[in-house]
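dumping this here so i dont lose it
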């Protein structure tokens, strides 16, 4: 059956990722293998690659990622995050709230392995508390990823919206409740911290003003995208331009900053993801998959959720996982995917990526706190299972 060729490529992709093969060659290689198995000739393969390069969706996504990289580099270079965190520590008197907010604020910037930046802050804030190294690791890792459910700066949301052909703002409105749920699910660990009254000699207004000023670049992007329906590339580009003007960048300095911020591997990966999607469409590889799903006794959403969970578990990276699973989902659904299914698969894939030592943030956090990885993973079982259960229940209820 033709569907098994697609499943075989998918299985091979997961196997290669499991043995830690480089992701970019795996994506491009899988695309070429899929073309060979479905007898797509060299000329058609090159045409598909050309269509991927010239596709407005691909171009827009690459531009957005370059702008986000530049924004992150600007904020770090000019000390916005450092000043914001310093003011925040004096502003918040609740140690529990402070411990949750510190990694969450670092999470405003989608840095790979960014949990290592917040780990020292969490360690300092958790000093003289009864938290174990495993509990400190859990707080740093768990709250670091709240924003990936709803912040338009994250490639996982950008890729999902683009591949599924749905407005980014609409996707975020449907994933925001999961960010709030994550915040609540971490409370049992935070409650182990005794409430200590702390005081600051600086006024609340001045500290709040300092926090707001330094978080304003990120906040401006979020508000423009969600409230004003501004395109993400325009919102980030405007903020980057304003920051460069404020810090008096010359054209040469601006170009050098973009070059320093550029992560070529990420851009190639996104290109590979869009190429993979194009090959699936060109080969009509999922024509048989739809028939196969109909013959199985397992509900379609369970199949997609399981695939997504496994991809997340193997890659350990949310954005990469979304780029692998959603082209399959979209193609199997005939190009039109309902929002309920998109959100469910997103959460299932995210859960897999969170619950694996392949996730760089988890590995770095556990190493920093000298914690037992097995105990940290055990602590993640309950909240991640609860999250996935809620997503499943909501899909069943509203579908």
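and the seq i came up w/
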């Amino acid at each position: 059956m033709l569907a098994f060729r697609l499943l075989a490529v998918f299985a091979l992709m997961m196997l290669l990722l499991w043995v830690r093969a480089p992701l970019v060659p795996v994506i491009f290689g899988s695309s070429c293998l899929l073309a060979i198995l479905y007898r797509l000739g060299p000329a058609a393969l090159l045409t598909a690659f050309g269509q991927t390069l010239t596709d407005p969706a691909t171009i827009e996504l690459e531009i957005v990622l370059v702008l986000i990289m530049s924004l992150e580099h600007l904020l770090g270079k000019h000390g916005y995050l450092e000043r914001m965190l310093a003011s925040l520590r004096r502003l918040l008197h609740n140690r529990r709230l402070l411990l949750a907010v510190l990694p969450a604020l670092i999470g405003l910037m989608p840095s790979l392995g960014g949990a290592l930046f917040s780990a020292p802050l969490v360690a300092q804030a958790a000093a003289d508390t009864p938290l174990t190294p495993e509990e400190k690791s859990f707080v740093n890792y768990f709250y670091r990823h709240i924003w990936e459910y709803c912040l338009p700066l994250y490639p996982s949301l950008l890729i999902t919206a683009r591949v599924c052909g749905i407005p980014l703002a609409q996707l975020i409105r449907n994933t925001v409740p999961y960010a709030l749920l994550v915040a609540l699910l971490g409370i049992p660990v935070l409650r182990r911290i005794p409430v200590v009254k702390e005081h600051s000699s600086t006024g609340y207004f001045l500290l709040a003003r300092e926090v707001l000023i330094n978080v304003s670049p990120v906040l401006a992007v979020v508000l423009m995208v969600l409230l004003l329906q501004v395109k993400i590339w325009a919102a980030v580009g405007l903020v980057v331009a304003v920051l460069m003007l404020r810090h008096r960048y010359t054209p040469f300095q601006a170009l050098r900053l973009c070059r320093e911020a550029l992560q070529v591997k990420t851009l190639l990966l996104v290109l590979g993801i869009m190429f993979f999607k194009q090959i699936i469409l060109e080969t009509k590889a999922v024509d048989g998959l739809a028939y196969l799903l109909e013959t199985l006794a397992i509900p379609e959403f369970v199949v997609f959720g399981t695939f997504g969970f496994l991809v997340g578990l193997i890659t350990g990276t949310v954005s990469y996982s979304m780029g692998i699973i959603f082209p399959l989902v979209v193609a199997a659904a005939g190009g039109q995917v309902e929002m309920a299914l998109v959100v469910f698969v997103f959460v299932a894939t995210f859960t897999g990526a969170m619950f694996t030592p392949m996730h760089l943030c988890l590995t770095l956090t556990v190493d920093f706190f000298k914690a037992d990885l097995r105990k940290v993973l055990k602590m993640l079982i309950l909240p991640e299972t609860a999250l996935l259960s809620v997503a499943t229940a909501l899909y069943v209820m509203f579908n």
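The chain has a mean pLDDT of 84.
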